[in-house]
Design brief:
Keywords: DNA-binding, Transcription, Transcription regulation. It contains 10 helices and 10 strands. By secondary structure, it is α+β, with helices and mostly antiparallel strands. The chain has a 4-stranded antiparallel sheet with strand order 2-6-4-5. α5 packs antiparallel against α10 and α6 runs parallel beside α10. The longest helix is centred in the middle third of the chain and has 27 residues. It starts with 11 loop residues before the first helix and ends in a 10-residue tail after the last helix. The relative contact order is 0.14.
C-alpha cells in the first residue's frame, strides 16, 4: 500500500468535488497499484471498495454462463468504479479487471456511501459518470455486433491511446481476446493483418501504434463516436472538467 502523495486532480471525479467535502474523504483515500489483468470483482460479487483510476483503466466485462467474455466499457481517470455507477444493487453485473499496470485511489465503500447520501454534488457527479458509462456501453455493444474484428481492434487501440496519450499500449493477445469476446488465435490473425499494413508493431506484452492516422482510417468510426460523446458530456457539465488532452 502506498500513501497518497500527489494531487487529487489526477482523477476528474475527485477534482470536481468541493474542497471541504473532499477533505472528509482524504483520510480514507489510499493510492494503490494494480497489475494488468488484476480482477477487482467477479459478476455477482460485491466490490470490496470504490476505485478511482489515475493511471490505469478498469475494463467492465460481461461473462456468459459458458465463460465467454465481452468488454462493454472502460472506466478511466474521468470517472469512478462503484456500485452506484455500474450496478446500483450492491452486486456487480459484470467482471471488473485492470486493463494495464497503474494506480487507482481506493476508498472504503461505506465511506463513499455516506458521502453519497450527504452530498448533492457527489450524487450529481455519479449521475454524470453513469451517462459516461452508457455512452460507451451502447456504442461498444453495437460495434461488437456489427463490425469486423480488425475494425474493432483499431477502435480499441485508439480509445486506449485517447486515455493514455501513449503510442505503446500494454496489452496481450489473450487480454484482447477476453475483451473482444473472441478466441486468442482470431486476435492474432487480425492483429497480424493490421501489422502488415504498418499500422502497429507487436511485442511480447505490448503493441506500438505506429500510424495513428492509418488506424483511424481503418477503424469502424465507433472510436470517434465514443470519444466525442464522452467529451460532450464532460464539457456540458460544469461539475466535471473535461480534460484538455481528451
Amino acid at each position: 500500500m502506498i500513501e497518497l502523495s500527489h494531487s487529487f486532480d489526477a482523477n476528474r471525479f475527485l477534482a470536481a468535488i468541493d474542497r471541504d467535502e473532499l477533505a472528509t474523504l482524504v483520510p480514507h483515500l489510499q493510492l494503490v497499484h494494480l497489475e494488468s489483468g488484476q480482477v477487482l470483482c467477479e459478476p455477482g460479487e460485491m466490490l470490496a471498495a470504490v476505485y478511482l483510476p489515475v493511471t490505469t483503466a478498469i475494463s467492465l466485462q460481461y461473462v456468459s454462463s459458458g465463460g465467454m467474455t465481452l468488454e462493454v466499457a472502460e472506466i478511466g481517470s474521468e470517472s469512478v468504479v462503484c456500485d452506484d455507477v455500474i450496478g446500483g444493487s450492491g452486486r456487480m453485473p459484470c467482471r471488473a479487471v485492470a486493463c494495464r499496470d497503474g494506480f487507482v485511489y481506493r476508498l472504503d465503500r461505506r465511506v463513499f456511501a455516506a458521502a453519497f447520501d450527504a452530498s448533492p454534488v457527489i450524487r450529481h457527479l455519479v449521475f454524470v459518470c453513469v451517462r459516461l458509462l452508457m455512452a460507451q456501453v451502447s456504442q461498444i455493444t453495437f460495434c461488437s455486433r456489427h463490425h469486423v474484428l480488425k475494425h474493432q481492434l483499431c477502435r480499441w487501440f485508439l480509445l486506449a491511446y485517447d486515455r493514455t496519450r501513449s503510442i505503446e499500449i500494454q496489452v496481450t493477445h489473450s487480454m484482447l481476446a477476453q475483451m473482444l469476446g473472441v478466441r486468442r488465435e482470431t486476435v492474432t490473425d487480425a492483429a497480424g493483418e493490421i501489422q502488415k499494413l504498418g499500422l502497429i508493431r507487436q511485442y511480447r506484452s505490448s503493441i506500438e501504434l505506429a500510424d495513428l492516422d492509418g488506424l483511424e482510417k481503418m477503424s469502424c468510426g465507433c472510436r470517434a463516436i465514443v470519444r466525442d460523446e464522452m467529451k460532450r458530456i464532460l464539457s456540458a457539465d460544469s461539475g466535471v472538467p473535461a480534460a484538455s488532452r481528451a
